[in-house]
Specification:
Blueprint (H helix, E strand, L loop, with lengths): L1 E2 H8 L5 H7 L3 H22 L3 E14 L9 E17 L4 E6 L5 E4 L13 H14 L7 E7 L9 H18 L5 H16 L6 H8 L2 E5 L7 E4 L9 E10 L4 H20 L10 H6 L1 H8 L1 H25 L3 H19 L12 H13 L4 E5 L4 E9 H15 L4 E4 L7 E2 L3
Parallel strand pairs: 4-6
Antiparallel strand pairs: 1-2, 2-3, 2-13, 3-6, 3-7, 4-5, 7-8, 9-11, 9-12, 10-11
Helix pairs in contact: 4-5, 4-6, 5-6, 5-7, 6-7, 8-11, 10-11, 11-12, 13-14
């Protein structure tokens, strides 16, 4: 813990090595981030009368390879980005967690009442309850604390705002009550458990792992209790391409879209079940094709197409990592486009059939292809059915690309990001 005054002095207007690691080297950006933390520290002082505090940051994530592969124990390629959620937190000596997030009503979680309540699904308080419940079950200490949170990971953007929030809460409890003894991967697993059981969303583990661990990583979920996380040694900055995430709107928070989202892992697993397996990672494409006549009578054709997508994208991650580690960026870009086509044609997570007139992702991909074909790469990003698209844009096309997409989706909807090395953590200034 440290006083607000001393922390502001250490931040030094953003002129410190940690902030440069998290947010880049632009002096304007660094000053803005310094003010952001200072404002949040003033907020916790005004709201909870707290002056002895700790600072935390949890990044959003960008999925670079492997679309909807994690929930069937597949492989992914992902990176933590410089858009983050930050928190100022302190113990309060009670059994109540009090959280004020900018733009949202303040809420409390009573640690004596952590039972699952379906009426509370899809709320921030349910995620806090879930994280606390699982940490307690695993033998970690939990306790009351006050926190003010400010988020820059847009909700429903495909950058995993919920996962970033979950592992942020885990990092706070880990630091305040457990001397940081919980590993980053375990923090991710706990966050996924909370989202599955308390939030009501059947997500995989990629989002939480990327947000918790940080950097550019490939993750193999063949053993989901012990995912293999490997750092990928590649410098995207040196390519001369920008990673651009565009917020195209839509999303999957309404009941119909939530059902569409939930159908993805369910349908994939239904194909695996017809082959005597639990998940698609346990079967081969050849086994699926051999049994298509029998399987389609039970699962329908869309489930088989989604299984086909899984097999292709799961292998593509291996090839993408190989291409990056061998500095074959052109092949990598080609595989990004292949992955996008596979998501559109086979996985079918670009738009939901109920809202067929709202095809924000489809339109964004069409515009991206118009500008970047032969010179860059583009694909759906994250869950799909709205949210965001991803593009790798050469510098000579960057202005044209941003202007074209923002002409349709609005000013400020394109985010030029970079991969940051740190995941969810307490800031040591």
């Amino acid at each position: 813990m440290a006083s607000i005054k001393s922390l502001i002095e250490k931040i030094n207007g953003g002129n410190n090595s940690l902030f440069q690691e998290l947010y880049g080297t632009d002096p304007i950006v660094l000053k803005e981030q310094a003010d952001r933390y200072a404002n949040l520290m003033n907020e916790i002082n005004n709201t909870f009368n707290s002056d002895d505090v700790e600072l935390f940051s949890s990044p959003g994530r960008t999925e670079i390879g492997g679309n909807h592969t994690d929930h069937n124990y597949g492989r992914v390629l992902a990176g933590a980005v410089d858009l983050d959620n930050i928190a100022v937190a302190t113990k309060n000596g009670t059994n109540i967690i009090r959280i004020k997030s900018e733009g949202y009503p303040q809420f409390e979680v009573d640690l004596d009442d952590l039972k699952i309540d379906e009426a509370n699904f899809f709320t921030s308080s349910s995620l806090v309850q879930g994280v606390c419940t699982r940490m307690k079950d695993l033998g970690y200490e939990i306790g009351g604390f006050d926190a003010c949170i400010e988020g820059r990971v847009p909700k429903g953007s495909g950058l995993s705002s919920s996962a970033s929030f979950e592992v942020l809460i885990g990092a706070i409890i880990n630091s305040l009550f457990n001397n940081d003894k919980m590993s980053k991967v375990e923090n991710a697993i706990i966050g996924q458990w909370a989202e599955n059981n308390y939030f009501g969303k059947p997500c995989g583990l990629m989002d939480q792992t990327a947000c918790s661990v940080g950097g550019l990583i490939t993750i193999d979920f063949e053993d989901p209790a012990n995912p293999i996380v490997k750092e990928v040694d590649f410098d995207f900055v040196s390519t001369g391409y920008s990673l651009v995430i565009t917020d195209v709107g839509g999303g999957h928070d309404d009941p119909v879209s939530q059902a569409e989202y939930a159908s993805l892992p369910t349908e994939m697993k239904s194909v695996a079940a017809e082959l005597g397996a639990d998940v698609l990672r346990e079967v081969t494409l050849e086994q699926i094709v051999d049994k298509i006549p029998e399987i389609r009578k039970k699962t329908g054709d869309r489930a088989i197409l989604r299984a086909y997508h899984f097999q292709g994208d799961n292998q593509r991650v291996v090839e993408q990592v190989d291409a990056l580690e061998n500095n074959d960026f052109k092949s990598f870009l080609n595989m990004v486009v292949e992955s996008g086509y596979s998501s559109y044609m086979y996985n079918q997570n670009i738009f939901d059939v109920t809202h067929k007139d709202e095809q924000v992702v489809s339109l964004g991909l069409a515009l991206s292809e118009m500008v970047l074909k032969g010179k860059g790469a583009w694909r759906v990003h994250g869950g799909g059915f709205g949210g965001t698209i991803q593009a790798f844009v050469p510098q000579d096309k960057l202005d044209e690309y941003v202007n074209t997409l923002e002409h349709v989706y609005g000013k400020g909807k394109c985010h030029k990001l970079f991969i940051r090395a740190k995941g969810a953590h307490k800031l040591h200034l």
